[in-house]
Write a structure and sequence with these properties.
There is one protein chain. By secondary structure, the chain is α/β, with parallel strands linked by helices. About 40% of the residues lie in helices and about 15% in strands. The protein is built from eleven helices and twelve strands. The strands form three sheets. The chain has a seven-stranded mixed β-sheet with strand order 2-8-7-6-5-3-4, with helices on both faces. A three-stranded antiparallel β-sheet has the order 9-10-12, with helices on one face. A two-stranded parallel sheet has the order 1-11. Helix 1 (about 20-25) packs antiparallel against helix 7 (about 245-285), helix 2 runs parallel beside helix 7 (about 245-285) and helix 3 runs parallel beside helix 4. The longest helix is centred in the C-terminal third of the chain and has 39 residues, at about 245-285. The chain is globular and about 70 Å long. It starts with 5 loop residues before the first strand and ends with a helix. Bound molecules: pyridoxal-5'-phosphate (PLP). Pyridoxal-5'-phosphate binds near residues 105, 150, 154, 181 and 205.
């Protein structure tokens, strides 16, 4: 029997909650209808399930069900928001403001838009990973059409001052998009209170299935406009054509319903475990340090540098531990994290950083095993000298 894996990579993806899987299963088999087939019961049954999931997702983010567009994941939601707004607002202006520590699925569409004649300001962050709202204000011009700032970072878990940014955007009549993927189900996300016009979400970062996400699109007046990326059957109000992924959407809805009732308790439990891991590692590893703000932070995230031992080396010895040095999307490259670079962390510390993402199924025993395992291997490697 292989040793049980301790999974601490919940920012990359989360396991599907068994309750979510159970809710999804009938929609692969006996309830297989197309949600757009209104001429028979199978279709209407699928449509009903989709609409019920739409309510669950909306309810978790304090939105109206009509404001939710289902997509194939948050990469698509981010592309839809950025490119869809840019195209429709071209006459008004060509300037977009975002942050250097955003996810690649925001940064790369911005690069594409730059190639098409848009101008993009990439704001920096301070040593804690937080952006300065005064700096953001200074970057705005009469040509600014969109601000895109994430709610919580996927590497260091820091929470940006999104409510303040929402107020600034509203005052200046600029649209505001927020990648809220990592925050969903972890902290309260109230799109109305945060003043968000568009928000991106992904099911698989919150114990739902991969390949399904949502874009929140504010419907109150003045209604923001958006052009679709995909055209065809005009599903999702024409904003996202394509046959709906009914089982995936049902799973997403169930995952949101579970978060609605369990989030407060889960957040407390995870932040306690996270602090236990942090304290244990700080005590056992000489020179270890935490990266990113500790006060403005997701409850289940920890990012630490262990000077002297490159993360790749450490990870390769941590056999039964599923962990990463940063974003999963970048783990194929040997480039150290651009997020940690933006915090001003020197290269030798960036190369020695680990990201811990705790989750619903993480136990205290696993945290204690992780602490011992990492500190033992670190001390062994550091003695040998692998710098
Ligand atoms: C994972 C992630 C995405 C991409 O979501 P997918 O559904 O995997 O496409 C976008 N933004 C952030 C912050 C993420 O963590």
């Amino acid at each position: 029997m292989p040793k049980k894996i301790i999974y601490l990579d919940n920012h990359a993806t989360t396991p599907v909650d068994p309750r979510v899987l159970k809710a999804m299963l009938p929609y692969f088999s006996q309830k297989f209808g197309n949600a757009a087939s209104r001429t028979h019961d199978l279709g209407r049954e699928a449509e009903k399930a989709v609409e019920s999931a739409r309510h669950e997702v909306a309810s978790l983010i304090h939105a109206d069900a009509r404001e939710i567009i289902f997509t194939g994941g948050a990469t698509e939601s981010n592309n839809l928001a950025l490119k869809g707004v840019a195209e429709v607002c071209r006459d008004k202006g060509n300037h977009i403001v975002t942050v250097g520590t955003e996810h690649k699925s925001v940064l790369d569409p911005c690069r594409r838009l730059e190639a098409q004649g848009f101008s993009v300001t990439y704001l920096g962050v301070d040593g804690e990973g937080l952006l300065n709202v005064e700096e953001l204000k200074k970057a705005l011009t009469p040509k600014t059409i969109l601000i895109s700032v994430m709610l919580a970072n996927n590497e260091i878990g820091v929470i940006q001052p999104v409510a303040e940014i929402g107020r600034v955007a509203k005052e200046r009549g600029i649209l505001f998009h927020c990648d809220a993927v990592q925050a969903l189900g972890r902290i309260s996300v109230n799109v109305k209170a945060l003043g968000i016009d568009f928000a991106s979400f992904s099911a698989h970062k919150n114990y739902g299935p991969k390949g399904v996400g949502a874009l929140y699109l504010r419907k109150s007046e003045p209604r923001p406009r958006l052009l679709p990326l995909l055209e065809g059957g005009a599903q999702e109000g024409g904003f996202r054509s394509g046959t709906l992924n009914v089982p995936g959407i049902v799973g997403f809805g169930k995952a949101c319903r579970i978060s609605q009732s369990e989030m407060p308790t889960e957040a407390k439990r995870l932040s306690k475990l996270r602090d236990r891991l942090r304290n244990g590692l700080l005590a056992k590893v000489n020179g270890a340090r935490v990266n990113g703000s500790e006060s403005q932070r997701l409850p289940h995230n920890l990012n630490m540098s262990f000077p002297g031992v490159p993360a790749g080396k450490l990870i390769s010895k941590l056999k039964n531990l599923a962990i990463s040095s940063g974003s999963a999307c970048l783990s194929t490259s040997t480039e150290p994290s651009y997020v940690l670079k933006a915090l001003g962390l020197p290269e030798e510390l960036r190369r020695c950083s680990l990201r811990f993402g705790l989750g619903r199924f993480t136990t205290e025993k696993e945290i204690d095993q992780t602490t011992i395992h990492i500190s033992n291997i670190y001390n062994e490697l550091n003695k040998v000298g692998h710098v």
